[in-house]
Specification:
Layout (H helix, E strand, L loop, with lengths): L3 E4 L2 E4 L2 E2 H8 L3 E5 H14 L6 E5 L6 H9 L3 E4 L2 H9 L7 E3 L6 H10 L3 E4 L2 H14 L3 E8 L21 E2 H11 L5 E7 L10 H19 L6 E3 L16 H12 L5 E4 L3 H4 L3 E12 L4 E5 L8 H5 L5 E3 L21 E6 L8 E8 L7 E4 L20 E6 L2 E6 L4 H5 L6
Helix pairs in contact: 2-9, 5-6, 8-9
The protein binds pyridoxal-5'-phosphate.
């Protein structure tokens, strides 16, 4: 599933012992695998090959320019949700025609920026936004294409903060309103409303919510076509699951197997916007143990990484498998699972130094005995890791490195204290 594996009692990324990265670059550090990015991207294009989709990688899941360039090199388009992400996509050399732009609150400067770049698709979230896009496109004399984000009212069975396709969600418009939006704007030639966009949540670990959503979207498209609207694009969005624990999420091929038959033969250009399913298991967060402290019931393993590098446990109660980098042969974890408890393990909470009780990376885990100085890998940290990093407690952002076979390079240097104050002018 990815290129992080234990060999001779220690963790490797591809052909490189992970400890070597800590020796040179220090900790905390995000470590990414070129091979895993490549394999995951190819698995998606292969699974959905019959539809020949435009695969727009979701920049917000893992945004480093070097990684975007790697994916652009493989043929990826980009899914952006802000002017900053659009800037990154263009810097990475993405073909503007393969950029889709979603988001409920695109500002005028952002819309003008995207019109000037000539992006392929605006994903529209409200009537007000579409009216404004038409006006700005008219002013700037740039025609464009748009898809209407529809809220198919399905339950993606994910965390309440990451469900986006339910009726009460702030994203998109419901199916009834969608018809009215087409009646009002569907024949505009400045902004050609040519598609339906879905993005029901993230992560969605099962296929069924997509089947429900796509079935409704295809029905809507056929209805619109009967009313003589030219609808030629279906954007499925992203949200495909990743394995935070072994077998947690359906395989990509399985999503494709169920969805392709619903879409094929209808003359639809398909767009997919995967983020997490590509990036999550392509990265780990590498941290070092600062202290081990006995607690009343269990030990605290205090590490130099925190919620400022990986906020998902604090924000979503997310589970990330965490394990020592050099556990020795007796403690090699054969599967990443929540309740792994090898003989001789100790119950611990892995916590950071930040002044918040929510600052933890893992709670109630059975780990091999940990000592001060031990390296720990927090797995599946490639998605929504660095991108959600903060400077809280004036912590400089961690370094990012990209491994390729037996070598690695730093793709973002560790920030310095001067970086922390660089924008505080004349202080
Ligand atoms: C976040 C997002 C995605 C990617 O979601 P993943 O779970 O990372 O695959 C795709 N499309 C839109 C519109 C998004 O907001």
């Amino acid at each position: 599933m990815d290129s992080f594996a234990y060999r001779d009692g220690e963790l490797y990324c591809e052909e490189l012992p992970v400890r070597r990265i800590a020796e040179t670059v220090g900790t905390p550090t995000y470590v990414y695998s070129t091979e895993t990015f490549r394999n995951h991207y190819k698995a998606i294009t292969k699974s959905f090959a019959e539809l020949n989709p435009t695969v727009c990688y979701s920049i917000k899941s893992c945004q480093n320019l070097h990684i975007l360039r790697l994916l652009v090199g493989l043929g990826a388009g980009m899914d952006v949700v802000s002017g900053g992400e659009l800037f990154r996509a263009l810097k990475a050399g993405a073909d503007p025609a393969t950029i889709s732009y979603a988001g409920v609150g695109k500002t005028d400067p952002e819309i003008r920026q995207a019109l000037a770049a000539g992006i392929g698709l605006f994903n529209i979230e409200s009537e007000a936004e579409l009216a404004n896009l038409i006006e700005l496109a008219r002013q700037t004399g740039r025609n464009t294409r748009a898809a209407l984000r529809v809220n198919p009212d399905v339950d993606p069975k994910t965390h309440r903060h990451t469900a986006t396709g339910k009726r009460e969600s702030k994203f998109g418009v419901d199916l009834e309103r969608a018809r009215r939006v087409f009646e009002q704007y569907g024949r505009n030639s400045t902004v050609r409303l040519c598609g339906i966009h879905l993005h029901i949540g993230s992560p969605v670990n099962t296929v069924e919510p997509y089947v429900q959503a796509v079935t409704k979207a295809v029905q809507l498209i056929e209805d619109l076509r009967s009313a003589r609207f030219e609808v030629d694009t279906l954007d499925l969005g992203g949200g495909f699951g990743a394995n935070y624990t072994e077998g947690q999420s359906a395989e990509l091929a399985h999503y494709a197997e169920k969805l392709v038959p619903l879409i094929r033969g209808r003359g639809l250009k398909t767009v997919i916007e995967p983020g997490r399913s590509i990036s999550a298991n392509a990265g780990i967060l590498l941290v070092r143990t600062t202290f081990v402290k006995p607690g009343p019931d269990k030990q605290f393993v205090i590490v130099d990484g925190s919620m400022t590098e990986l906020i998902r446990p604090a924000l979503y109660d997310a589970f990330h498998f965490a394990w020592p980098v050099q556990p020795g042969a007796a403690f090699v974890p054969l599967v990443r699972q929540a309740d792994l408890n090898l003989p001789g393990s100790v119950e611990v909470d892995i916590v950071g130094p930040v002044c918040e009780s929510a600052d933890f990376l893992a709670k109630g885990r059975y780990l091999p005995p940990i000592n001060r100085g031990d390296l720990i890998a927090v797995f599946t940290a490639g998605a929504y890791g660095f991108v959600m990093a903060s400077h809280y407690n004036s912590r400089p952002n961690a370094a990012e490195v990209l491994v390729d076979r037996d070598s690695f390079r730093t793709i973002r240097r560790r920030e310095t204290y001067d970086d922390l104050i660089a924008a505080e002018q004349n202080a």
